[in-house]
Design a protein that fits this description.
The complex is a heterodimer of chains A (402) and B (272).
Chain A: E1 15-16, E2 19-23, H1 29-42, H2 46-60, E3 66-68, H3 70-76, E4 80-85, H4 95-108, E5 113-118, H5 122-134, E6 137-143, H6 144-149, H7 151-159, E7 163-167, H8 174-187, E8 192-194, H9 205-213, H10 215-228, E9 234-239, H11 243-249, E10 259-265, H12 278-281, E11 283-287, E12 289-294, H13 319-327, E13 331-335, H14 337-351, H15 357-369, E14 378-383, H16 391-397
Parallel strand pairs in A: 4-14, 5-6, 5-8, 6-7, 9-10, 9-14, 10-13
Antiparallel strand pairs in A: 1-2, 2-12, 3-4, 11-12
Chain B: H1 3-13, E1 18-24, H2 30-39, E2 47-51, H3 62-73, H4 78-91, E3 97-101, H5 103-109, H6 111-121, E4 125-128, H7 137-145, E5 149-150, E6 152-154, H8 160-168, E7 174-177, H9 190-201, E8 208-211, H10 217-224, E9 229-232, H11 234-245, H12 250-270
Parallel strand pairs in B: 1-2, 1-9, 2-3, 3-4, 4-5, 6-7, 7-8, 8-9
Helix pairs in contact in B: 2-4, 2-12, 3-11, 4-6, 6-7, 10-12, 11-12
Classes of the chains: A alpha/beta (402), B alpha/beta (272).
């Protein structure tokens, strides 16, 4: 049965259906409850909202353009493809949207230090940026493997005054960075705010990050109506934890005629053990403060994810995505490393835009879908980040030395 | 009567605090771990917390994190943990065993089946560190049905309102996490521990155990003077890592651990 609305969640305890919730140690519970309370108060405070709006415009550079990708559209020969240009934001990705929101909340709560986990480094850079802007101390946890493959972003964070702590536990990637961030937070509850980088973690984070990211979808709606006189037929976004996807989708969830496609990273393929597709290959479980779908063994141990894109290399996904998947409102598909690489190169050559490898997964699905659709089908892809950070990885894949 | 209640009642009659030891099931492998487990009661362990290995122990410090990774690499699993408890029970019917760990392996096993199999194996209580009162309803019912206590945690960040919520459905004992941090890190002062225990006792008649940051016999004695139980984990578990680094024969490593545990037990016994 179709629901009256897909936008009423989560419930007061942070559940989207049976997903989400607050699975954290008791030491963190009072703090998590306090973050929720402060967040709810802040979102009704005109001064807070005005400051957020001002920073969105003057500091991030919002609204980001909605751009008609004409040469790509011609090349694919079907649907009319638009890019929501989140890669043009300050720091080069959508992550700044929720970093600004959360740092304002941290400041409001009187915290003097922020911490973050990062995979590709985009969320780490965004957090280091807003910490510098507001004069807060900043520590970013980053897997040792990711530090190696995302060197430019590591140096950016250092320039911005953040301490980057290499994480060597477990698989030394994003999930392990999140474990270490939680360990730091529990040890520094009094002065530290944890700026989580996706729509996951304990309630209220999945809701809060979604709300701050929803500016993407709200702008898109206004822009497409202005440019085309109607809503789009489809929306496409890549999904790791799922912040950029939910940011684009959420304001459209109750527009029944808008189809939505979230593209997971399937690495070497969903049927291999090297992928990061939690919806396609995962099962329900509890990790990092929420109940969601996870890549895990028969014994409930978390498996290492794999994706060419560090930002999607996570064995879980935000709980609201799982709920939207089970409701059938959003269609979850996947793209392999290879498909993402092809999309990356096509975007560079047809549009003069170097996309993040994360966003290239979304584009890979557009490349599959667009040629099969009529020319009056309007498709919006969230171009969530720019790919400057990925040129070393891409060069290696192409067998070129730089 | 549950083993936990029987044990706490007997210790109370002796005016003695309980000494609670923690090891990780299957660390560094099943055989050595089983030998340590079997030896703990003879060196003064009154209650045993058996850690259930998890890949992502976000509330634990490096010592227990590494223990979990070692155990998993050696093939540890929930089924193996139950088997170890069952074997232990053949020789020891009295020492309570509390399984401590994270929710995902329990959830994935199936909560009802987990509680049933745990009870059959001889488990007395569960501490699930990432399952706060807000989320533990689905564990409480099957645990109670199988006579397993669900032990809840109180921390330095728990105010009086929060304590009311925590003790409401608690059973067995209340575990006071003495420092805001991960296992094996900083230590709290004896005075702070005394104040916290007194505060918790205003909310509940359950015994109060104190853990986190207790590393020496002296610290164990200080806690035993102020609480119903002192819990030591990382300090014991670290000896496995040290033994492996020094490439000690298994028998020597086991002996070292049991000897150290005996000194901690003596500390607890000297506390009052």
């Amino acid at each position: 049965m179709a629901l009256n609305s897909y936008t009423t969640g989560p419930d007061e305890k942070g559940h989207f259906g049976q997903y989400g919730g607050r699975y954290v140690s008791e030491t963190l519970m009072p703090l998590v409850l306090q973050v929720e309370q402060e967040y709810r108060t802040a979102m009704k405070d005109e001064t807070f909202l005005a400051e957020l709006d001002e920073l969105n415009r003057q500091y991030i550079g919002r609204p980001s353009p909605l751009y008609y990708a004409e040469r790509l559209t011609d090349h694919l020969g079907g649907a009319k493809v638009y890019f929501k240009r989140e890669e043009l934001n300050h720091t080069g990705a959508h992550k700044i949207n929720h970093a600004i929101g959360q740092v304002l909340l941290a400041k409001r709560m009187g915290k003097t230090r922020v911490i973050a986990e990062t995979g590709a480094g985009q969320h780490g850079v965004a957090t280091a940026t807003v910490a510098a802007r507001f004069g807060l101390k900043c520590t970013v946890f980053m897997g040792a493997v990711d530090i190696e493959r995302q060197k430019p972003n590591v140096f950016r964070m250092k320039l911005l005054g953040a301490e980057v702590k290499p994480v060597t536990s477990g698989s030394a990637t994003l999930k392990d960075a999140m474990n270490d961030a939680l360990r730091d937070w529990v040890s520094n509850v009094h002065d530290t705010f944890y700026i989580i980088g996706t729509v996951a973690g304990p309630h209220p984070y999945p809701m809060m990050v979604r709300d701050f990211q929803s500016v993407i979808g709200r702008e898109t709606k206004e822009q497409i109506v202005h440019m085309e006189g109607r809503l789009p037929d489809s929306l496409v976004a890549c999904v790791g934890g799922g912040s950029n996807a939910l940011g684009l989708f959420h304001p459209f969830l109750d527009d029944r005629d808008v189809e939505m496609y979230a593209v997971e990273a399937s690495g070497h393929g969903v049927d291999t053990d090297k992928n990061a597709a939690s919806i396609a290959g995962g099962s329900p479980g509890v990790l990092h403060g929420n109940r969601t779908y996870l890549l895990q063994t028969e014994d409930g141990q978390i498996e290492e994810a794999h994706s060419i894109s560090a930002g999607l290399d996570y064995p879980g996904i935000g709980p609201e995505h799982v709920w939207l998947h089970e409701q059938g409102r959003v269609t979850y598909v996947s793209a392999t490393d290879k498909e993402a690489m092809e999309a990356f190169q096509l975007c560079c050559r047809t549009e003069g835009i170097i996309p993040a490898l994360e966003s290239a997964h979304g584009l890979a699905h557009v490349m599959r879908m667009a040629p099969t659709l009529p020319k009056d089908h309007i498709c919006v892809l969230n171009l969530s980040g720019r790919g400057d950070k990925d040129i070393f990885t891409v060069a290696k894949e192409l067998g070129e030395e730089i | 009567m549950s083993r936990l209640k029987a044990r706490f009642d007997a210790l109370k009659a002796d005016n003695r605090a309980a000494f609670v030891t923690y090891i990780q099931a299957g660390d560094p492998n099943r055989d050595v771990s089983a030998a340590i487990l079997a030896g703990l009661p003879s060196v003064g362990a009154d209650i045993i917390e058996l850690g259930m290995p998890f890949t992502d122990p976000a509330a634990d410090g490096p010592a227990i994190d590494k223990a979990a990774q070692r155990a998993l690499a050696a093939g540890a699993s929930t089924k193996q943990t139950f088997e170890m408890v069952r074997e232990f029970r053949r020789a020891d019917e009295a020492t309570p065993i509390v399984l401590m760990g994270y929710f995902n392996p329990v959830f994935h096993y199936g909560i009802d089946a987990f509680c049933k199999d745990a009870a059959v194996a001889g488990v007395d209580g569960l501490i699930i560190v990432d399952l706060p009162p807000e989320e533990d309803a689905e564990l409480l019912a099957p645990a109670i049905a199988n006579n397993i206590d669900v032990i809840r945690l109180a921390t330095p960040t728990s105010d009086d309102d929060r304590l009311t919520t925590i003790v409401k459905d608690a059973s067995g004992f209340v575990y006071y996490v003495a420092v805001a941090g991960v296992t094996g890190g900083k230590s709290a002062t004896a005075d702070d521990i005394g104040d916290a225990v007194a505060r918790i006792k205003r909310h509940t008649d359950l015994p109060v155990a104190v853990g986190f940051g207790i590393k020496t016999p002296e610290q164990a004695a200080d806690v035993a003077a102020r609480a119903d139980a002192a819990v030591v984990g990382s300090a014991i578990v670290s000896l496995i890592e040290q033994g492996l680094e020094k490439q000690l024969p298994n028998a020597d490593m086991i002996e070292n651990i049991l000897n150290f545990t005996q000194t901690l037990a003596n500390g607890v016994r000297s506390g009052r």
